[in-house]
Amino acid sequence: YVITMHTIFTRTVFRRLKQWKEAPERKPLILRGARQVGKTSAVKRFAEEYFEDVVYINLERAEDWEAFHDIRSLCDFERTVRVVLGKALTPGKTLVFLDEIQHAPRLIELLRFFYEERPTLHVVAAGSLLEVMLLREGLEMPVGRVEYARMYPMTFFEFLGAMGKVDLLHYLENVRADDAIPAGIHREASELFRTYALVGGMPEAVSLHSRGCSPEEMYSLYASLLTGYMEDIYKYARSAEVKYVRHILEHAPYAAGERITYEKFGNSAYRSREMGEAFDLLGRAMLISQVFATKSRQLPIVGRTKASKKLLFLDAGLVNFKNGIEEEFVRFEDVGDMYRGKLAEQIVGQNLLALGTFVEKPLFYWAKDASEGSAEVDFCLSHRGRMVGIEVKSGHAGRLKSLASLKDAAPEAVLMRISSAPLARERVRSFSKRSEEYAVLSLPFYLVNRVGDFLENV
After folding, report:
1. DSSP state of 102
2. Which of 5, 30, 151, 369 has its Cα between 20 and 30 A from that of 124?
3. What is the mean pLDDT of residues 414-438?
4. What is the Cβ-side half-sphere exposure of residue 336, based on CA atoms within 13 angstroms?
5. Three-class SS of residue 55?
């Protein structure tokens, strides 16, 4: 599918920004996300739609940094905005947007005073390396004085909106668990999801694809993004850490969707301790996510820190590029077939992470101890007070032994399968002495963004 990119499309974070804007008790909002996921564009677009004016300060620009990095009071900030930028700060009408705020620790400290002394003023701060810089500099966010939102690469529903597939998007947003999706709609949505799984969700990649660019242009973009992330290492990693971080960033796309151990990761001779710290650093930069194992039987879901982790990279498009998956040569009928099914876990995982735009939702995978028998459920999360087990695979639900094992151990868990199959209710047989049958809701890949909505229907 190559369609002209829709010029006006909505990112999921808009709902979070609108909710924040209208809240009577509001704090400065910190927007987190990796570089190039669209933070700046989203906030600027939001400002255009909901405010009369925006004071945009980018702390990576030399002139903005020089004017604002050492400001220590709100009075000095307001005076500098008025004199240097020629703007007034009008509560309810002006949005203050502090971009790449990690470069100005004084402004980070100033956020608490915006909350305490100018609570009616709307302030958004964004930083792609914010948590990493705070850790390196030994700084802390003003606890209880700020709130957070997160941005990830574009979800499949955002991809549909960007492509102008408004009617399909509206249908998928409103389809119910018991609806029979027409075969034609299922085919079109499935084909678009395969395209999305290949292109990924980086906004610039989606834009290039929508314009029908050549494969060489796409590859050039992916290479440029990965090079940029590699160059960023020197901004946040200490010299002793650089080699570990570089090694992980180079090899992580090859291990996306797989269980990993720190020691010998990517065939290195590096020790577990140093690699663990480097993985943590890249996690703070939101370039990777580590999915912890759990054997919890009820909420809260508790991760097992010593067990192997499942690795998710920032975006499937970058994973495909590194693995040499080229769109013009590869025509998979099923996303689950793409290199041993690992891409399916990567693309589903990054869309599940995006459920945490409002409140961070850690992902886990559920696994029994080896002594208890072999059983592993691809993803496990808590949503709206319920424990959810999700298998990402093709095949009939009757063969979903791991989901049955999870339900045997955790009777309150909700079971879901995500695959290329149509939307359906299925059942899986218990392995317990009671020999019960458990309900499984089978979602097609293209409904992954509706996981939360369907929980009440299982």
Report:
1. G
2. 5
3. 89
4. 13
5. strand
CA–CA gap between residue 209 and residue 142 (Å, rounded): 41
Q: Are 334 and 341 in contact (CB under 8 A)?
A: no
pLDDT at 3 over 50: no
Q: What is the pLDDT of residue 457?
A: 75
Q: How far apart are CA 125 and CA 100, in angstroms?
A: 7
Of 379, 287, 318, 238, the C-alpha closest to 32 is: 287
pTM metric for this prediction:
0.93
For residues 173 and 157, the answer to whether their CB atoms sit within 8 Å is yes
In Å, the largest CA–CA distance within the chain is 77
Taking 3-state DSSP, the helix, strand and coil percentages for the chain, each rounded to the nearest 5, stand at: 45, 15, 35
Handedness of CA 97, 100, 104, 105 (dihedral sign): positive
* CB-CB contact of 118 with 91 (8 Å): yes
CB-based burial of residue 60 (10 Å sphere; 0-12 exposed, 13-18 middle, 19+ buried)?
A: exposed
Cα angle 272, 273, 274; round to 5 = 95
DSSP code per residue over 57-97: EETTSHHHHHHHTT--SHHHHHHHHHHHS-----TTTEEEE
Helix (H, G, I), strand (E, B) or coil at 29: strand
3-state secondary structure of 36: coil
Bridge partners of 438, per DSSP, are 428
What SS3 class is residue 266? helix
